[in-house]
Design a protein that fits this description.
By secondary structure, this protein is α/β, with parallel strands linked by helices. It is built from 13 helices and twelve strands. The strands form three sheets. A six-stranded parallel beta sheet has the order 2-1-3-4-5-11, sandwiched between helices. Helix 9 runs parallel beside helix 10. This is LacI family DNA-binding transcriptional regulator. InterPro entries: HTH_LacI, Lambda_DNA-bd_dom_sf, Peripla_BP/Lac1_sug-bd_dom, Peripla_BP_I.
Length: about 350
Amino acid sequence: MKTGKHPRQISARAPTLDDVARTAGLSSMTVSRALNTPQLVRPATVAKVMAAVTATGYIPNALAGGLASSRSRLIALVVPQINNPMFVDTIQALNDALAQRGYTLLLCVTGYSETAEADTVATILSRRPDGIVLTGIHHTQTLKRVIMQAAVPVVEIWDMTPTPLDMLVGFSHEKAGNCLGHFLAQKGYSRPALIWTDDRRGRQRKQGVIASFHQHGITISAESSVPLPASLQLGREALAALLDSGTSCDVIVCSSDTLAQGAIMEAQARQLSVPQQLAVSGFGDLAFAAWNQPAITTVHIDRAAIGHRAATLLADSIAGLTIAEPIIDIGFTMVERDSA
């Protein structure tokens, strides 16, 4: 008799722990111990169980195990963008360091919306992560309240404050901008123009740049604001607009190396020698900055260290270890190269 169903719909079912036990010739209890506490089971037995898992296609129920141990082994990372090269090294380092401690990273992208961040975190918490990493220190009151009620370890990254929600790994963007501005002023540049993205951390760096130039009696000649994410194209277009408007400048200060690379290309396309006729500086010390032609003067941020230190703080906190330094300032380094 025909049922109207595909045979696979009738017979297919997910393999169970008992299936693994039968295939391995072991008890279900032994299989469970081998999967959940392999360090307490003989290696030969663990190997036999894993071979049976492969043969049956069994997928352990991590949620059930997590409920039993009050641990999900999940760490949620909330970032504004994944197409921004500034965050890539941090994400990778965080993932690698957490994996070494037995955790899986859950990546969430929220844009630069604090409301979207709050909604995302509320959804994440329903999955019971063991910890959360947030980008930045500016959050809605709703998010702060939810975080406090959840009582999970939290690390904020890429910013600096003496009063984080829990733990923090970052640096002062305003100080980084101030350092860059002082460097350029001391090099003798007196007619700076800015190409900048209008995000909160970018604005903090810009305030530092402007303040440091003002301390040297220098005002900003012109400014071009570009949307996120920064790109080579936007850097070229922004410099073209500045030059076409008749702006007189001797240095272009960019909020990222990507914009700086675009500005350099536009200057070269217009037969302007960099830095002899027009200097250019960036921020971030991205992988290409040292190899660009000319190499880009920039501010180095150890992005991988942010991820690694954040992972260590979270894993240690979850393990119940004492956190000696809940606030870590990784600092920054001014890197002088050929472009300025």
